[in-house]
Amino acid sequence: MLVFEKSRAGRGMSMLPACDVEIKKPSEKDARQKELHLPQMSENDLSRHYTELAKKSHGVNDGFYPLGSCTMKYNPKINEDMAALPGFTQIHPLQPEHSVQGCLEVLKKSEEYLCEITGMDGMTFQPAAGAHGEFTGLMLIKAYHESRGDEKRTKIIVPDSAHGTNPASAAMAGYKVVSIASAPDGGVDLEGLKAACGEDTAGLMLTNPNTVGLFDKNILKITEIVHECGGLCYYDGANLNAVMGTVRPGDMGFDVIHLNLHKTFSTPHGGGGPGSGPVGCKSMLLQFLPSYRVVEKEGALAMEKAEHSIGEMKEFYGNFLVVVKALTYLMTLGKEGIPEASQNAVLNANYMMNKLKDLYTMAYDEVCMHEFVMSLEDLKKKAGVSAMDIAKGLLDNGIHPPTMYFPLIVHEALMVEPTETESKEVLDHAIEVFRKLYNDALENPESLLQAPVTTPVTRMDEVEAARHPVLKYEFES
Amino acid sequence: MLVFEKSRAGRGMSMLPACDVEIKKPSEKDARQKELHLPQMSENDLSRHYTELAKKSHGVNDGFYPLGSCTMKYNPKINEDMAALPGFTQIHPLQPEHSVQGCLEVLKKSEEYLCEITGMDGMTFQPAAGAHGEFTGLMLIKAYHESRGDEKRTKIIVPDSAHGTNPASAAMAGYKVVSIASAPDGGVDLEGLKAACGEDTAGLMLTNPNTVGLFDKNILKITEIVHECGGLCYYDGANLNAVMGTVRPGDMGFDVIHLNLHKTFSTPHGGGGPGSGPVGCKSMLLQFLPSYRVVEKEGALAMEKAEHSIGEMKEFYGNFLVVVKALTYLMTLGKEGIPEASQNAVLNANYMMNKLKDLYTMAYDEVCMHEFVMSLEDLKKKAGVSAMDIAKGLLDNGIHPPTMYFPLIVHEALMVEPTETESKEVLDHAIEVFRKLYNDALENPESLLQAPVTTPVTRMDEVEAARHPVLKYEFES
Amino acid sequence: MGSYVPNTLEERQEMLKEIGYNSIDDLFAHIPEEVKIKGGLNIPEGKSELEVRREMENIASKNQVFKTIFRGAGAYRHFIPSIVNSVISKENLLTAYTPYQAEISQGILQSIFEYQTMICDLTGMDVSNACVYDGAEAAAEGVAMCQERKRKKAFISAAILPDAMSTIKTYCHGNGMEIVEIPEKDGVTDLDYLKEHIDDKTACVYIQHPNYYGNLEDAQAIGEVAHGAGAKYIMGVNPISLGIIKTPAEYGADVAVGDGQPLGLPLGFGGPYLGFMAATEGMMRKLPGRIVGQTEDHNGKIGYVLTLQAREQHIRREKASSNICSNQALCALAVGVYMSAMGSEGIKEAALQSTSKAHYLAAELDKIGFKVENKGEFFHEFVTVSEKCPCEALKALEEHGILGGYPLGNHRVLWCCTEMNTKEEMDEVVRILKEV
Amino acid sequence: MGSYVPNTLEERQEMLKEIGYNSIDDLFAHIPEEVKIKGGLNIPEGKSELEVRREMENIASKNQVFKTIFRGAGAYRHFIPSIVNSVISKENLLTAYTPYQAEISQGILQSIFEYQTMICDLTGMDVSNACVYDGAEAAAEGVAMCQERKRKKAFISAAILPDAMSTIKTYCHGNGMEIVEIPEKDGVTDLDYLKEHIDDKTACVYIQHPNYYGNLEDAQAIGEVAHGAGAKYIMGVNPISLGIIKTPAEYGADVAVGDGQPLGLPLGFGGPYLGFMAATEGMMRKLPGRIVGQTEDHNGKIGYVLTLQAREQHIRREKASSNICSNQALCALAVGVYMSAMGSEGIKEAALQSTSKAHYLAAELDKIGFKVENKGEFFHEFVTVSEKCPCEALKALEEHGILGGYPLGNHRVLWCCTEMNTKEEMDEVVRILKEV
After folding, report:
1. Are D393 and D404 in contact (CB under 8 A)?
2. What is the pLDDT of residue B477?
3. Neighbours, chain A (3 or more CB pairs < 8 A)
């Protein structure tokens, strides 16, 4: 039942005292005319409403969540406590600098950690999410070429295995997208790349390890090819959890990177956000960064604007409280913990892959990084059970499904990312469920076509939802 | 699965830094020999363990909880926030007085509010729960008689409808319990009381409204009879939610009272505690109070011990953080809110009772206070369905059962206390469910004998549990 | 060192052995040696929870928490009911991903559907998306969604939040739209300038209402000018103000955007906040970001799903209406809880008290030489101008634990009041300022 | 006025009408007029949430929060992992009643069963109850449960927490047991006195270990004396110390009690804390309070229930082993989370660091004239004696945000260290004291 259906005229909670100054109302000309229909609830009813909604939701805390390319790792409790400190939550973004030295220290320390981890020279925390970071990074590339009077660079090269945000971000930055096909091994096809590169190339956007979970062995060659034609290299940090502490994008030849603090650095996804997508870059791009960077000045921390800033990407300094959570995590893991996390993410993925590959067809049968992609094309042909059906079968077993139908270059794809915070028992249990579902698919396909049956609702009619959109509750009056 | 079964040797969380001083171990003679078997868990596994346990629990926040005599009202969120303020949680109980003025103010303000509500002259917050308060109150009565050299008063009169804690507390205080039968109308039988009273009477313990939910119309007469024989009158505050703001125990002739802050004043029950059972008394008993009272001295607040204190009932000053929650509630409701709460508790109870009484037999068919008692004796005879079976049927409908088989003077009793924080819709739904179950009992009794079927476990074998007690997990080593 | 990896060294070895490897290094063997880090990362060693807590608390203590705040300028301290944080701390909601798997995400989806309804109710618009990053970014997305093949010019009022102006410019530098700043005149948008310069290449006109200086614009007239030229009309609004001030719909806007921070989100040194976006029915498919719709499951049970995904990046890639993927979902949840807890009456009251207190403070400051610049109606912000630089005055307030208004240059201060400010506090400000 | 009543005035009227009444007063008509309050309660009017929050925060701010604490004496500041509060804030656990309805209380029941197991593991005893109010009350209940028809005398060491001594006396004044205080000699229980006075009327001997002064007692020997006289042996123990110090079982105790506060509960100005009680198998049915046992449901599924209820007040009334009803369940949950988060190694480490730091501080204080009185082994508390009154010294520490030891009279101070105290802090104490 919607909160509006639970609302009763005249109910409510007592939040504010009576006004202690003379009441000033807006003039008739500017006074609101339409009545408001916000819920009128007792606190008990409202609280129970959200208790109910929470019961119909599923988070990492409820169980295994191997959602490929999303890095659904455990969200440590201390992160939340630190981000809830009044010394952070109650700070106005426009307080005088001397009164926000703690906030500036958070940004400075986070930049130091993350620049060292990525091999970059500086970083902005303004971008609010990964896609926002991509757009920011591309605007830096744009500013770079413009600053050199290099106006002809109008194209961004994007592999066909990329996340949809990559081409979308390039388009927002006003670039034409050149899509290049992947090599049979899932990596960048060097010849294709060379052919695409030219004096109109602004840059390349790459995810490495790529979206099929493989580290591109030609990585140095790739960035070299792009640099040779005058383009810059953009690193999509979505998969950093696979390699942090082992390799650094900066050392692989990348000039700009965005990170997803809500993936790699353990801040929760919150049902879709807020995330944080800081963008790091090499020194020649620092002058273009948006927002402020924190610098030391006369023994105190100060905010400094870049000389040729691309301008703001949003208000203030980014999703600051999310950065607090990530810094807490960085300080906790530190020098040894960062590589330990990625090593175990990779181990867990390879363990699961190897324990499933006799049944499920792996898109690429080699060592994977932190995630792997299976193709259910065969199974679909054999049994009429699709990747979607297997995914829905997992729901009935308390496991969140892998990412479905991505990357687009693999048919009937399921992309599995266990993360390092899952134990062997959890993986073994999931392996067992996956194997059982495979057998179910062969022996009793109908059971999967009907799945899920244990969830609050069964499969939804998405076509109808899009065809006749009902996007809000209609009030009677 | 128990947490111990999820434990794996070598796992764990990193809580403490290395020791920064020389390590000092106890000598061999006093060194622990037996190995510890505490869980070894990752934070993710531990966190999910308790997520699981929480899912197998049911609180007020999950739905209607009409548990008679327990006053399961809504627990406001602001109470929890206030009790979590570092300015309260991080205060050592033995700090100098000038550094705990805020804590003392909490105790002082709470005493002022509660003394006015109960009509008492002073209060101690040391008792940790209702039963602890009862024992405290009886020790005050004992001290009173002893201080007068009145050694012959060895008996406490308790009606047979009383909570079990009443006679148990009297026994702990070294009193012999004189149980008096209730009058047919559920109240105190005046003649029986007179007969029981004598020069060996230390006092009377009474709940009013009583445990069948009725206000004793003879209340002034009752306390007068006890006083006349030289006894004191103890008020069990369990049912204060019915009358606060309308009558005051002090005005009814009571000399001592305990309150249940976790019932009447909205602090949560926590799965069985912590509660808080402050004890208030009339002026002649103040000199015997345990712990400290807060007084004003030279413009500051100070702690003062009673001259002839009965001694401590526990450490320090009681469940202080629970008192913080109750004070938050008291301040929120205030002068008009306190009677409003009790009026609506009574209205809700009468509403439900009247909507059920054509089907269910009410133990006393008159205006009830904040709760009412039904007897299912007839139904049991007719259909073989007991109070227990109806209770279990409620579980399958998402409603917490009423208190079962209490008070003892009503057979097959179900005692329903809706509280004031439930809306008409919630009551109407519950009424519907109760009526449906009644019909089920007649038409399909088997369905109730098997209930519940939707819960994590079905009915438990309690006999076996008590006969062959398994009270802990047995480790293998 | 802290670690969230459950498996012990032995278990890792066991797992490796089971899948035919000797060491973890084997799994990284295919990575070219020359890019591998030599000698480890140059960052501090990991720390125990006790140390991290101690260090973070120490860092937080270096910030000054003001008990009393009269500063807004884009971030507003309103009352946040306890129930808001209680709800958003629920881990099933906090630790979930974007609700792609509708069957186990009905709680989150329903909360977004409710949020969309409330935003529509508040703004009077037909449709709302599930939120974007913040008010400034919502403004930029709003301008972008009005772009048409033959209309690539956007008129932006100069009297808007500077960060919003800058963000719009950044986005437009990306998507190729031309920005024309409509100058400010007497604290409001210069309507004459707009009338004079608007043309048939104009995609949209954007104003903020109340504007950066707290003033109400002649919002109806501006909309008429925009529509007269065939352009869309976008209003950036303060959501609290909508409790008592005309809705964008009532002023004739096609798109309404704003920052949801005043609706239950803490100041948090600037974020996370939330950008809300609502539009007329006709612009529904141009909205960026997630949208939740109602539908039925296979058994006919009502439920909710992410819908109209054909607009989005994961389907349309470079042809998407925006690249947005993660938004500020948990903030939208907080906003939903806030609006439910306050209710219609609560929001109205917050609005009424905010503006009433601002008018009281303005009058009092005016009396002591901080002359109020605002000429027409203003909501809960206003600008004072004084002969002397206000730096001394603001410093004096700071020393009393009061964050005064936001200095605009050397003589002007932008003040803000909300329902959190008491008369007592305001009288204290006046007393302190008199003494300076 | 704040209110948590959902029903509006109209709804109340409607409900009254439906059941045949005109007004709420009708429902109270049977209450004698002469006892009714005239003119309402004399308490302040109700307040909005904003006002209540403001006032309570203001009250809390009148307390001084010490960053550094060297005071114990019954309340100890140990590290509390973040996960502890995260778990006990879950509302299904927080807002539930005592788990009488086992079918919907398996989570709470299992958590208690786990708690009981951990307490048994920590103390080495056979059975544990589900907790009582706190350490002092647990001691009093422990003494009471040893009473036998012909044994009504209890020997109590004078070297225990004063509140525990007082509580034991109060309880014994109620139940009629005679208390004999065993004097303290050189900071420990006078064994010779006990040997001399114990007799066949003695029900039990109670000591605290480590005792009030931090000293380890000759616990083995005391137990042998007790048992030699046919009496029960009760030990009050600090649970953290059990990480490294012999268990009560190893010393031969029949009953072990203590305060669980060090295991994850905040100082909280003295409560809520938790009293744990464990005993040998033979004394199982004498334990007061709730006990959870494992059993099966009708389908053979393992589950948990409240058991051995024949001991309890709601069944046995005046013949119950105790009157306890509500206990400190949520605190027991916190203790369970704490012990799981710390694990065996964590508890050992906390114990080891606490004692190591106490020995460091003792040595340093001894050097500067605060002579350490403790003669034998001590755990994490110790007593210094100085010629001058320590009041000046403690005040100086206070001014630096340090809560020093607890003054015992005019020359002695009882100090405490835990893993929370750094060497740096201790060196600062010494530096400050030197200057006084």
Report:
1. yes
2. 64
3. B, C, D
